[in-house]
Amino acid sequence: MSVHEPGTPGETATVVAATDVRRTYHLGEPVHALDGVSLSLEEGSFTAVMGPSGSGKSTLMNLFGCLDTPDEGTVEIDGRSVTALSGSDRARLRGTEIGFVFQTFNLMPRLTAAENVTMPMVFHDVVDEDRRARARTLLERVGLGDRLDHAPSELSGGQRQRVAIARALANEPTLLLADEPTGNLDTETGAEIMDLFRELHDDGRTILMVTHERAIAEHADRIVHLVDGTLDEIEEVRGSKAASGRDRSGSEGSE
């Protein structure tokens, strides 16, 4: 599947759209994680989602990532409704169209960096030599061309996250989802990872990122604020931190 072409010149394709989605968990008593949220991501957009604990951030990401389905409402990817897909069809969609970057890296400890990156390629009919070549290209892209045969235990936290980003890009996904991608990193390393996300966005990637850090969220084009399972505000940022000349602490830089 690929993102459909816009219908008219200048029109932007919608990559994923949630319409009036509701998701309730029954944990002794009902917990309304999402209560009528509608949100769409346009091709090439970079959206950050913020909100207090329990606001529905992770639930929304799980719906967009086909890890869960709503109780009510619809989720469409590339104009195709995925709400009624079988579990196996959703799994294939996840493997071919969606790349995931997690806070805890989720790398296989017994595999090398290159082997971790090739894992998602099982969803495609790619011979081993081509998988290895693509893994090398992606690891070079994230600055780890000299770490192909290193195990995760031989890499720093920032390097592990770079491997995770390379793995997320293995199948040229339509959508890149990042769940607190700097949460386990120090401030300097986290800033380097966000610089990489900005480069991916500049290359045309569509990114949805969950974060609780304002400084991290400001790398996105817009910030979606969730409160108690509802969409409270959509704040247009348009990469203000990168575009305004401010440094990573938020103060104004000199010209």
How would you describe what is shown here?
There is one protein chain. This protein is α/β, with parallel strands linked by helices. The protein has a domain at 43-58 and 85-243: Rossmann fold (3-Layer(aba) Sandwich), CATH 3.40.50.300. Helices cover 29% and strands 26% of the residues. Strands 6-7-8-3-9-10 form a 6-stranded mixed sheet. β9 and β10 (230-236) form a beta hairpin. α4 (128-141) crosses α5 (157-168) and α5 runs parallel beside α6. The chain is globular, with a radius of gyration of 18 Å.
Would you summarize the structure shown here?
Helices cover 29% and strands 26% of the residues. The protein has helices spanning 57-64, 87-97, 113-118, 128-141, 157-168, 187-202, 214-217, 240-243; strands spanning 14-27, 29-42, 46-50, 72-77, 80-81, 98-101, 175-179, 207-210, 222-227, 230-236. Strand 9 (222-227) and strand 10 form a beta hairpin.
What are the SSEs and their pairings?
Blueprint: E1 14-27, E2 29-42, E3 46-50, H1 57-64, E4 72-77, E5 80-81, H2 87-97, E6 98-101, H3 113-118, H4 128-141, H5 157-168, E7 175-179, H6 187-202, E8 207-210, H7 214-217, E9 222-227, E10 230-236, H8 240-243
Parallel strand pairs: 3-8, 3-9, 6-7, 7-8
Antiparallel strand pairs: 1-2, 1-4, 4-5, 9-10
Helix pairs in contact: 4-5, 5-6
